[in-house]
């Protein structure tokens, strides 16, 4: 009896649930009928265990009793499941331009096509793919090469495409697309660590050493720091901290760059309501440091220290303020204006670097469909690829024809205000 009860707990309790589940999903499935037969057998075996001499006798008696019924059941079920088993599914991905062919066609076609699809020249794309393969960061698999995998990711961050759109573009199923994109996301921290950093040897940059306006006053300056807001899509109940002062949802990104427009540091993920100074303080507490005696240029929103030099407050600073000055007023009112003007000229490098980054990767101008962690990783990935492309002497003149103003995109401040005036009921809905 104890043995029978144990078997009941092992087989009978899960059995009905599984049988009912299978029968509900596949009412004509033979497996559900087999579970029901097994259940009947165990129930009868336990109920008659006191009357029959042995377990073998119970099995034999049960099979004899059920033989005729099971034969009839089999004759009913078999014709029903044959059409289901033999049914051919209609293929979804029917284009002759497979993923491999598409990537090959882009890389072997006109250079402008590769710039449009992958945001870089074909030679640079191939060099990056070979690097990722050589460093064992990505691997060729039976169905997807490293070039295809890199192409999917670059296409996604270049066009803000969803999984479904990538399936159509690369003729792969959704699971493969998701897995390969995730594998690239996994190596983003490694790419950032390798390519977003200060050079090992810091010398006075030629932009300073060859210009008397900056030398020797800025000889220890190694670049500039600024914050930029990247739109995000996030659940409504988590949205308030991400509301920035312009009224949109974003995360606050702090970047540092040198005078070659290469990024030397990036900090992503802070809520849009966080101050630039707070993001910098957090970065310093987590290990962001400068070589001794060197400094970055920052705007007035940051504290003025020996490592982060801000302009004089209450004095003209922005370059357009000086451009508006008439020729008869070409001089500076005081030494503070002179310092601020030269400070602004050098600090303008960070604004140019951010501008190039957003032109190359327009995904940074809109909220995306990705989980919040991936949205943050996208920013880090674009910064890393920006440096890699520049390290390969990637041409940037073509980016001048790319949209510049955020007002051209549906998730920008003006769009949000217009949508809100149209009685949009939720921030997430407005972003989408």
From TrEMBL:
Extent of Polar residues compositional bias: 404-413
One Gene Ontology cellular component: nucleus
Ranges of residues in domain DUF8040: 94-188
Ranges that cross the membrane: 6-26
Keyword Nucleus belongs to the record: yes
Family listed: Belongs to the HARBI1 family.
Name under which the protein is recorded: DDE Tnp4 domain-containing protein
Annotated source species: Paspalum notatum var. saurae
């Amino acid at each position: 009896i104890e043995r029978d009860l144990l078997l009941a707990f092992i087989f009978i309790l899960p059995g009905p649930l599984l049988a009912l589940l299978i029968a509900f999903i596949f009412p004509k499935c033979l497996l559900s009928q087999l579970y029901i037969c097994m259940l009947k057998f165990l129930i009868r075996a336990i109920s008659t265990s006191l009357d029959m001499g042995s377990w073998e006798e119970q099995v034999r008696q049960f099979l004899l009793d059920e033989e005729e019924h099971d034969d009839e059941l089999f004759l009913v079920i078999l014709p029903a499941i044959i059409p289901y088993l033999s049914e051919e599914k209609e293929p979804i991905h029917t284009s002759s331009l497979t993923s491999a062919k598409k990537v090959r066609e882009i890389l072997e076609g006109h250079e402008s096509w590769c710039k449009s699809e992958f945001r870089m020249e074909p030679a640079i794309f191939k060099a990056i793919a070979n690097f990722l393969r050589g460093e064992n960061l990505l691997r060729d698999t039976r169905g997807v090469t490293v070039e295809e995998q890199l192409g999917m990711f670059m296409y996604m961050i270049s066009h803000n495409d969803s999984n479904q759109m990538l399936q159509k573009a690369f003729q792969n199923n959704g699971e493969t697309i998701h897995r390969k994109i995730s594998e690239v996301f996994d190596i983003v921290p490694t790419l950032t660590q390798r390519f977003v950093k200060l050079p090992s040897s810091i010398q006075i940059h030629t932009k300073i050493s060859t210009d008397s306006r900056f030398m020797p006053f800025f000889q220890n300056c190694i670049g500039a720091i600024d914050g930029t807001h990247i739109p995000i899509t996030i659940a409504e109940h988590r949205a308030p901290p991400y509301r920035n002062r312009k009224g949109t949802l974003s995360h606050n990104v702090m970047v540092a760059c040198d005078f070659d427009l290469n990024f030397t540091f990036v900090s992503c993920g802070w809520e849009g309501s966080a101050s630039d100074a707070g993001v910098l303080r957090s970065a310093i507490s987590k290990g962001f440091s400068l070589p001794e005696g060197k400094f970055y240029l920052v705007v007035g929103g940051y504290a003025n220290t020996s490592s982060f030099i801000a302009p004089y407050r209450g004095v003209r600073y922005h370059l357009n303020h000086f451009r508006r000055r008439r020729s008869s007023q070409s001089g500076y009112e005081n030494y503070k204006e002179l310092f601020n003007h030269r400070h602004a000229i050098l600090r303008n490098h960070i604004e140019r670097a951010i501008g190039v980054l957003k032109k190359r990767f327009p995904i940074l101008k809109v909220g995306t469909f990705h989980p919040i962690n991936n949205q943050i990783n996208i920013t880090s990935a674009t910064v890393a690829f920006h440096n890699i492309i520049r390290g390969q002497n990637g041409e940037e003149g073509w980016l001048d024809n790319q949209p510049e103003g955020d007002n051209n995109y549906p998730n920008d401040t003006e769009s949000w205000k217009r949508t809100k005036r149209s009685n949009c009921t939720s921030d997430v809905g407005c972003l989408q």
